[in-house]
Structures are given as structure tokens and as C-alpha cells.
Amino acid sequence: MQISENIRDLEPSATLAVTTLCKTMRAQGREVIDLSAGEPDFRTPDFAAQAGIASIVQGFTHYTPVAGVPVLRTLIAEDLADRHGRATNPDGVVVTAGAKHALFNACFSLFGPGDEVLVPSPYWTSYPEIVKLSRARPVFVPATLESGFRIGPADLDAARSDATRGLLLNSPTNPTGAVYPIEELDAIFRWAADNDICIISDEIYARICFTQPFAAGALDLDSELLKNVVLVSGASKAFAMTGWRLGFSYSSPELARKMTALQSHMTSGIAAATQYAGVAVFRKEPRVEHAVRAMVGVFRHRRERLTTMFRRHLPQAAFVSPDGAFYLFFRIDSFFDEQRRDSISFCSWLLEKTGVALVPGAAFGDDRFARLSFAAPEDEIIEGIRRMAEALAVSAGTR
Asked: pTM above 0.90?
């Protein structure tokens, strides 16, 4: 069977591949400490789960409007307005089957053959593939450990060409946990406005921020900078609702209508129960904020414990302490040898030797690194680091 050019060179998600391998190993009876997960290790808040269940019991089990049920779109718009202190329009909201779906809608609606889209690197593993699916070409903009894994207008200028049409920006960032200060966001968005470049601002981790209640985002900037901007977010990370598949985009009503038309031929509206669970988490209620703050507090504590242990037991593994999300992106190339020549072979060796699962940096565009998720129980994180340090110390002693 001949495979279409649309997907011939498409790579599967490396992060999901590691998760699948861990589950396979556990099914075989092997002990695995999974520090690769890209999802919170918390239950969905009970009030959200009960709202989803209640919607099913009450018979809300049929087709929904493609862009989302009106009450949810209104609550999402009000939540954005409240957090960013500006007026918003529910007509700009399109509810999607996860933030990944919203990213696809935006890329497929904005870019096409011959277009180039700037992607800061390290990047979330799906960004380049989503850009390729839109028939555009991803152009990587390197961000360094020394720069705190953040890029600026000078970096973008160096990568821009006459074909550049877009920029995929993520803050807080997966895989590095970097958070862009408002001043740096302003400079990037002004650069994009001056060069007529669309920005897709992925803010899925905005609530998981350790330096302020919310990470700065697109809607904190001047309105004049937002004409060619699509904000993408959802409930997956902040509310531990990855399996519910609840994302959204916010853009101009005109673009929202185009993306709704696209979605009408793909998925139609997302599951009704998911949307009514979403209504529960986007309401302005104390229990909502309490659920988020409680989870972020645990992540903050784990981050402090984790970074302290890394500095003490793995001093060769350079990193930038993450200001958001729940990942540590650290250098591993000092541990390379004839057996461990790159991040993939290193992570494979580590998993086989210690039972600790990480994601190789090659999945994110930098083969010198690995990503560790601290969305795992604290005792597993501590034991995982202990095993890593012990195995690498023994390995170094036998060279």
C-alpha cells in the first residue's frame, strides 16, 4: 500500500513512546520508576469529575456545537479576562480535543506549502510534526542553557527569511520549564508585529508557575500586538485532566470561525461530558483555585528537593532550575561513552540498568540533554535520582 506524502515522514510522539515502553515493562513484571510522564500524577478534582458524570446522567450525550457549548466558551473567555485584566469575546474561543488539537487547527488554518514557521529549540516534540502536517517547514531557533532556554528578537531575526509566516512560542516551556518575563514577551510580540508574523502562543502550563500565580502570556500585552495571535491552552495540565481531552484556542472571531469550519469536518464538537466537566473548572470559584494552588505547591516542593539532589549527587548534569511546568531538562553528554553515544542510547541504558525512565533530549531537538518529569511521587523521584547517581558513578569508575 502506498503511503501519502502527508504522513510519509511523520515521526511518532517520542514522549508517548517512552510511556508505552514503561507500561510494557511493568506488564512483564519489571520494576520501573517512570520519570518521563507529561501529565500530572494527581486525580482530576472530584467536582469536575462529578460534573462530567452528572451531565451523562442528565442526558447531555448528543452532539454539541462544533466550537463548544456556549456556557463553556463564555466561562473560558471570562477566565482569560479575569486573569489578564482585559475584555475578551467568547466568539474567539474554539473548544478542542486537547491543546494539541487546537495547535493543529491553528497551524493548518494559518500556514501552508512554502511557508516557514519558527520553532524555538528545545521544543515540545509535536511542534515540528504539526507544522509539517500543515505542509509548512519548521525552522528551529536554538535556545541555550546560558540564555535560560529563552530566545529573543535577535535570535528570531537570524532565523527569519522571506518565507517566514509564523512562530510557535511556548511559556512555561516543555521540556525546559523556562518562563518568559513580560518584558521579553513584549519584545518578541513587537518583533512579530513588525514583521507581519503570526504567533501561536502555547500557554497550557500558564497556571503551573513557581515565580508568580500565573505566567505572563499574550493577553498581558498591548492589543495592537495581538492581531495575528492565537492563544492555545486547556485543562489538561492545571486540572489533571489529560484523559478528558479539553483544550481551546482564543483568537479573533474571524479566525475562530475558520478554525470551527475546519473542525466541523474533523471531529465536530468534543465530548459533551468533557465540556461539562470543563464548565466546573473554568467557573470562578474558590475550590477551583484551591485545587490548582494545592497541586502547584506540591510541584514546587518537588522541584526544590529535586534540584538540591541534582546539585549534590549529579553535579556534572548542568541544568536551569525550572520556573514553570514540571520538568527538569539536564545535560547528559558528560556521561556519554562508547556504549552511550547519544541521548537515546543513554536513556535506553539507564532504563535497562536502573529501571528509571527519562525522555531523551533528541525528542526535543537537543541530543545532549534528557528530560525528567517530577510529576511523580516524591519517594520515586528521590529513589530514581539515587539509582541514577549510583549507576553513573559505578560506570565512571569502570571506564
From this structure: yes
